[in-house]
Fold this protein.
Amino acid sequence: MARYGEAYKRRVVARLLPPESAAVEVVSREVGVSVATLERWRAAALVEPGAAAGGEERWTPAARLEAVITTASMDEASRSAWCREHGLYVADLERWKRDAMAGLGEPRGASAADTKQDRRRIKELERELQRKDKALAETTALLVMRGKLAAVFRDGEDA
């Protein structure tokens, strides 16, 4: 008799439960585990605490968004039937919709105080840059004059 790890069982059972809800026979053929074993694993997963409470933890964020999009155009009766079919509550869908909308919210705009502070900082940095440019130009001029002075005196020493 083969022994399977808990992680492997959870992955296989996740395919049997919503949102995927794959057929037991198909999964059995793909993973090489008997139908009876898969049904036993699924039944055990459904009686675990939290498995029957909406099964929300099985829904990935992408699957949640897909569920919200799928049910967006449905009327209340169709949405309720869809939720029953997938083991969800309508309240779960509403919460997922609010979460998705909150994630799409406008980016936080800079406040007036932040903008004013940024402008002041930019002005300070520009002044400092100008001061350093002038100092660099002065240093360059001094080095050039020093080189010329050295060339003049060197020429005079040879004579």
